[in-house]
Amino acid sequence: MNKFLSLLTFLFLLSTVSFAQKIVSFKAMGHEDEAVQGMSGSTAYYIKIDPLIEMNGSKLVLFFEPSQALIREKSFVNVIINDKSAYSSRLTKDSIQQISLNLSRNDLSSDKFLKIQVKTLLTVSDEKCKDLDNPAMWLRVKSYSYLNLVKSNANFFANVNIGNSFETMRAITYPANPSLHDLKAVAWAYSRLKKADAKNIQVYQEGHLPDSVKNYVVVGQLSRLNATQRSLIKVTPQRGEGLMYLNKATVSVADTIVRLVNAGGKIMAIKSLAESTVPSEILFITGADETGYEKSITALGNINILNSTFGDYLLINKAENTFFKTIDENRSKLSFRQIGGTTNFLSGIGNLSSVYNFKNSDFSFTPKEVEIRVIANYSSLAPGDRGYLNIYLNGMLIQSERLDGSGKLNTAVTINRYQHHKYNTLETEFRFYSSGGNCLNSFNGFFAEVDVDKSYLESKNPFVTSDLSFYQYPEAFNNGTTRIVISKKYAPFAAGALGEIIYELNNNINANNFPEFTYSGDMDVNDLKKNHIIALLAADDPLMKEFPDAPIQFDRKFRLYNNENNKIVYELSDSVSNGLAQIFYGRSNNAVLVLTATGKNLSEAFSSASRSITEQLSTLSSNVAISDVNNNKYLFNISKSSENLEYIDTKSVLTRFWESYNLYILLAMLVLILLSFLYIRAKVQKSQDIFTD
């Protein structure tokens, strides 16, 4: 058994790092151990398959751990692939069990996803009705389950196109001295890669791309590309034309091959080097001139164009995006289908549930209250039957409605701003129990279905406060026009952060925020009041002075104190690379987000700041975030009257010296006073002794 567990552990470690071995673990694909709960439970995995994968000959290997309380010979596990039954079996007595299935091309859906469902029918006792709510009924699919995929270059040139190439890209390169168009192109390319679920996207200036990266995006106007890059483009755009061009080639690389051998009863890994041929995909986002380049960037923001581009190049004569929003746009009511819900016919007994996910940014504004309206049909209940609809938000029960004989359900619950988060999980659960507790003939008698078109979420009131907070980002920028302002000297370091910002502004069901890009030196200060502003600035940029309402003036050295004990919790220092972000209302009640960076690693600092403000924050009032390149993050709520903010550079040298060493000075003075007292006391005592004699 120990040998078996050692092998499993090694497979887990190997599968997370060695795609060259054609083994990819569920954990590497973002799936931790998944528990399948209940008598008849299920879980599903949707895995995007690379166009280079040859399904014939590939394998699915599942490891699962059953509850120790189950009656194994009366419990079953079923695997369904692409909605077709693939495997069914009773559980065995092993503590960790394995299923190995051969895959084929027929197992892929039309959109190239591999859909895997694990369904269970579990038994704890011989009385089925008593098993309904027994918490011991579970089976856990392990995260070291894996896909053993055959990667073939045979159909590489035929199967890969612009539309699906984003899924395999890992990096973006841009010119060393980027223009605004280059930064805009990086931002939209980054957003597109992230929407395609690309992991760990890297952004490099020209000449810094590692040799190990073979699939990447190159942005830049055609005349600014180097000779090697231009030689890879076989199509020449005409004046005013944009161009997306996918260069496909195969290259030889040295790879590490790992073999498992049994040496004296121990499983050992033997590594060796081997030459292998791998595909290389380079996608160029370019144009004959600035006009054409801008058309390519506009096309990047149109998901319909990209998804329907099945060739290796796209010449763009005219580019427009029908998703451009207007100030009058209103998204206060969202159906369950809009937030990803699908028609789900539920039948059986006990716990029957559906899960939906939504974000605050799906609405036009941060909602103060949200009405959740659930409309459903179900089989009418007989006299004595008991049925309920339970509604859960982020794991908490917020509504329970008793079912009746009508078979129709129309119920609503309103939640306040303390109950919903930036990112939310909504669950509807039907529970049914037959009359008298006799459920033997009722397992197939109850059914229910939520109407995802008529059920909806409605934002009742906007969450309006005197001060903006990161809780309201990015939906504070949903209405009106957003202007992105960049310090020119920091432009080479802002590309990655811009990608995070563009992605977040469009990470909702209506991706339609297309900001304008401007250098800070070219910004008309009057326009600061006419637009929402997202500014990536150097600390000494003169434009910083145009934000008098900012919680902190980042161009001055400052300290932040803990209000409770008056201890310093943060002090600005140029020796550490920090990203600093603050959000606030401008002079015209417009949303303003300002980011800057300090230290040597400016790119990492900007990126760290842009990521830190997009996370699920537990506070509703943080308006200042400070994060370093090691992903440490500090959140503050700073107002003009805050006593926990102090500017160091407004004090004299003597004052700063006193504040730094006052304790030592006071201690020294106390010691001198004590010594003086002892000295005088000794003199007095001596005089008394002489007088007595």
From TrEMBL:
Superkingdom of the organism of origin: Bacteria
Membrane topology: Single-pass membrane protein
Transmembrane segments: 661-680
A Pfam family assignment: BcsB
UniProt subcellular location: Cell membrane
Leader sequence residues: 1-20
Keywords from the named record: Cell membrane, Membrane, Signal, Transmembrane, Transmembrane helix
Broad class of the protein's primary localization: membrane
Protein name: Cellulose biosynthesis cyclic di-GMP-binding regulatory protein BcsB
Organism: Mucilaginibacter calamicampi
